[in-house]
Recover the amino acids of this structure.
């Protein structure tokens, strides 16, 4: 149905079902049909009506107050501050015009609500925005605040973008034989540059668009990138807008090997939507901006600029877990918890009207961790699963979280006893927060002596973003964080390294200490500074707690590299690796072999086919064979550039 | 190397190696670099020079006389007729400007050549064209003559087309990672609409572009067509020239399921080359023109017009078996005998400089037949074979040619004894000539009583094209044909049905007789007229000697269909099938299971991978499994729309 007809039909159904609702406008906003009304209460009292309209037109309907009703934002803010008593401890007030809501972050939410909701009702009556009160997160996130400010700044521009996206989604699907294909564009039989293309007769959806940061071949500007230049993705006839046939981009989580080249699409004027969860958007923004900054400061070529990251944010549509949304005329997307990092998603694609269902796991942890619940594996329907296999090899059995923690304790203790320092390379997002929680807990219980833990390279920033999205954390942690006194992240043992001077102090300190620093695979970042100075002292320990990809310095050191050529003050010098090297498995955000197999075997319903990706070649093949032998389902280890027809 | 540089380099090497040769021009002509000279004899005396130049610039070099030297064609023709005595029996003289040759077709070639080549030398000296004398074919082919006339007519236009093709072939290949992919576009896990796309980083080559004539769904204009609308083939941004990214089209043989939609490419302004053998071009022209004519007369929609067939011919570059040619910056093609029908080819693709080799068998007969040698399976290198599997099922073992002939004799004899008539549906090209040879031989030897054999629907035309290309036939038949007295095709038992009146006479005749008529699968053509009138008489016999595809009337009758709804004089009426239905295996132009397996097992060198196509789904899968189990090589039964990466 063309979009004009969709709007017309919504109008007709509305007129029939709710003639008394004062509807002032009906518009497209990305995947949503937004109905503006002067009578929000009518719809609050009649929730069935929206459901019925949605079912009739088969679209997601959103009711929103007519903007003319809402008080000006600055004025409304003043009103709220007047009404609410000071002891409520309001920390932030921000407006969400998309929902007609105003969010009030307060230290004592009860004091904002008032007895029997009295104050809240008063606020509502005065400003007409719908107030939502939330407990102020214990940590302030600079990124989250900047994101809100930026989105406010580009609100008008974004409205137009979303309307165009809506028009595109609502174009009629092509008739004739219907089929479903999937192409491996990157990250198949390898780790890095993840990218998968879903193609139907009508639509093309790109799932992830990662960058392999371990690869940088200056002769080939596309090295480290997925195969985006193939005609299935790149329209060579329109060099101004080569990605124009892509209906939507879906990002499963914020790591660079999944989101690192999404801004490149915008460099080439992609103007479609990017779907991800809100925490993925914020974490991705942080990591991408840092990536560009670091690369530029190191004089490396970067395939895009900061402004393209901003374009990405401008075109991002956030979805919550469990929220089903049309992203193309014949494709619906639903995100679910993946357990890997904050906001990470298992993506379920429903194609056609009951034609086919694909689940793309992204990176998954199928075990409850200190941070998240285990990855979701219950779906209404699923025929094909595309699953990661980072630890999918037949030998890849990992210790439990508990055992891993015990090993870490041992390593720290032994190094402490020798008077050495401990360096732990970590991704800013994911592993660092888990290791922080474990170390803090041991020190609090006295199982480890107290010593300072230094956080270098965006780890603190990432941690604050976790606090801003408590609904994405598991229940235990959520409670810990909001019990302010026991909030582990606020423990005084943690110190942020915020300047080069501070880093030098830490490096030359003679006290026992622990450093958590990025990058997690040692292919850049401040971790190298610590390593440079500490590597030749056998009392010190380097502890790997995460996956080290082929080609990274981390992997080579793990494999026994004894000398590393680095530079010091611009001059090349050779670092001798005399420090103790430890690898502690079990902290990974990836499922081990057993968990991957269990994820599939306990999936409900059972998939017909599993495509293995995101693992070294032998692991992909081994897991594919293993699953096929044990469960009889069709399995395949696609190669990059291959296309399989699912239906 | 850009094409300008190629020409420059040829010029430089020529100047160095052959400064005395009077070179007047160097130009591109499709895959060739053509060097025009005033001194043909110099090059005739120094054949090594061309070889050296070719090796240096890595291009095929062609030496041609400067046109200003050659006598005007009409005048030259008169000169030849003056010089050659009448008893030579000159039947045709035609000029080939591409080679600077004049071909003299004569009944007594010796009389044209003269004692010690005296006359020939004289001709050459006078007209400057290089005379080539060939024995006049015993049958005149209308199609072959028309083809020569047409090519002469469009010679100038063609020169420009070939120059542009040459420029495109000589563009520099893209740098960076090199890979090879193959896409199944049609005819995979099915028979009909064969189409395969070879993709490299630089180039795209379409091998076959067939039409499934058994499918005609009016709701879907692309029914019966390969999946040409996918972005790998079709550039949606340029609706004027959507096929512009295709570097070359290769046609393996003239049947409609392989060439039927090549003209469609020209309807959409494709302007690249089409490579095939000369007999494939002539047969394809005949079959395509007939297809359009018949379809139009039946009021069916045809996806293109006659003028697009002409465009195809204009863009066709013919290759001989064993002639290696650049068809893209990084792809070289060599055709070899496939044994299936006249001019049918096994295509060998050499990609990059030693990067990869693919063999696409097209349809193959791996057994010497009455017409052709067994399919070629010796190559310099081959990693992947894409092979047909029409009779690839585990039960598909066929009798030998000899046994098949004996069975045919029995069936004819029994029907003759009952006083019935025999109807044999055949493809015009391939089976009909074999059946003619067998029947003629039995009647000549007295093993069958003499009775008239009527040829309806282009069988005669097709037969004459065989006589025009004796070098494509096996040696025995070639000798038979040229021993005029015994030429089986000239036997008086054969009668052409050239008019509706004649057909009606044959239909109502009460004498014993045999009809060979198209179409071979009874999905149209004059065979239906005979069937309509003869089907209800149990004395008559319908004999299938070729493959009947799923969905065709032939297949349904073979499966026991007892009533067929047809039309007679525009009115629907029901034909009761009472006639005797016989299927004689062993005449097929396709290899049976044993021959397919032998073709691969005796291939030299052994391929690493075999992709199975052109067979019903279960046959493709069964053959893939069988070959893998027996020889351990990787095998796959791709689905249409799938892409596999070979390297």
């Amino acid at each position: 149905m063309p979009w004009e007809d969709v709007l017309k039909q919504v109008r007709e159904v509305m007129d029939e079902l709710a003639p008394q609702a004062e509807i002032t406008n009906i518009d497209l906003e990305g995947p949503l049909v937004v109905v503006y009304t002067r009578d929000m209460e009518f719809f609050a009292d009649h929730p069935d009506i929206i459901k019925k309209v949605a079912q009739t037109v088969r679209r997601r309907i959103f009711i929103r107050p007519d903007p003319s009703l809402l008080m000006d934002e600055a004025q409304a803010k003043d009103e709220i501050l007047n009404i609410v008593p000071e002891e409520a401890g309001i920390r932030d007030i921000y407006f969400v015009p998309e929902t007609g809501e105003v969010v009030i972050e307060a230290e004592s939410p009860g004091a904002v609500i008032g007895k029997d909701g009295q104050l809240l009702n008063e606020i509502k009556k005065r400003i007409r925005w719908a107030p939502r009160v939330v407990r102020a997160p214990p940590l302030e996130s600079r990124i989250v605040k900047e994101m809100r400010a930026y989105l406010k700044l580009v609100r008008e521009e974004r409205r137009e973008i979303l309307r165009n996206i809506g028009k595109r989604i609502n174009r009629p699907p092509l008739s004739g034989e219907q089929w479903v294909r999937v192409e491996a564009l990157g990250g198949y039989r390898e780790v890095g540059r993840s990218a998968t293309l879903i193609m139907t007769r009508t639509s093309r959806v790109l799932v992830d668009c990662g960058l392999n940061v371990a690869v940088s071949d200056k002769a080939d500007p596309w090295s480290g990138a997925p195969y985006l230049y193939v005609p299935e993705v790149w329209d060579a006839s329109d060099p101004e807008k080569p990605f124009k046939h892509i209906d939507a981009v879906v990002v499963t989580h914020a790591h660079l090997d999944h989101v690192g080249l999404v801004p490149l699409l915008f460099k080439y004027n992609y103007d479609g939507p990017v779907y991800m969860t809100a925490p993925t958007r914020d974490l991705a923004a942080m990591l991408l901006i840092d990536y560009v900054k670091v690369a530029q400061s190191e004089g490396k070529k970067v395939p895009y600029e900061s402004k393209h990251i901003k374009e990405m944010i401008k075109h991002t549509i956030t979805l919550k877990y469990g929220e089903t949304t049309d992203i193309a005329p014949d494709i619906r997307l639903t995100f679910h918890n993946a357990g890997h990092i904050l906001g990470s998603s298992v993506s379920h694609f429903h194609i056609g009207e009951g034609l086919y269902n694909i689940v793309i796991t992204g990176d998954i942890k199928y075990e409850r961790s200190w941070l998240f619940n285990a990855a979701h594996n219950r779906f209404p329907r699923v025929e094909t699963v595309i699953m990661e296999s980072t630890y999918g090899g037949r030998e890849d059995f990992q210790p439990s979280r508990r055992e891993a923690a015990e090993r870490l304790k041992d390593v720290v203790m032994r190094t402490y006893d020798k008077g050495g320092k401990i360096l732990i390379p970590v991704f800013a997002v994911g592993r660092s927060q888990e290791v922080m929680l474990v170390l803090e807990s041991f020190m609090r219980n006295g199982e480890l002596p107290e010593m300072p833990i230094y956080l270098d390279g965006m780890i603190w920033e990432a941690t604050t973003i976790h606090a801003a999205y408590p609904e994405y954390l598991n229940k235990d942690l959520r409670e810990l964080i909001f019990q302010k006194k026991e909030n582990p992240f606020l423990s005084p043992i943690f110190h942020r390294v915020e300047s080069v001077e501070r880093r030098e102090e830490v490096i030359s300190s003679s006290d026992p200490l622990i450093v958590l620093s990025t990058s997690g695979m040692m292919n850049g970042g401040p971790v190298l500074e610590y390593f440079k100075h500490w590597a030749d002292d056998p009392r010190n320990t380097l502890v790997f707690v995460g996956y080290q990809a082929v080609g990274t310095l981390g992997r080579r050191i793990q494999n026994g590299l004894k000398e590393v050529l680095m530079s010091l003050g611009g001059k090349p010098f050779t670092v001798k690796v005399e420090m103790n090297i430890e690898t502690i498995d079990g902290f990974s955000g990836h499922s081990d072999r057993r968990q991957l197999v269990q994820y599939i075997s306990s999936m409900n319903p059972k998939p017909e086919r599993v495509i293995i990706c995101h693992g070294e070649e032998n692991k992909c093949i081994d897991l594919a064979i293993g699953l096929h032998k044990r469960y009889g389902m069709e399995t395949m280890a696609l190669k990059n550039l291959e296309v399989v027809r699912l239906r």
DSSP finds 21 helices and 28 strands in chain B. The two ends of chain B are 24 Å apart (CA to CA). The mean pLDDT of chain B is 93. Residues 358 and 384 of chain B are 5 Å apart (CA to CA).
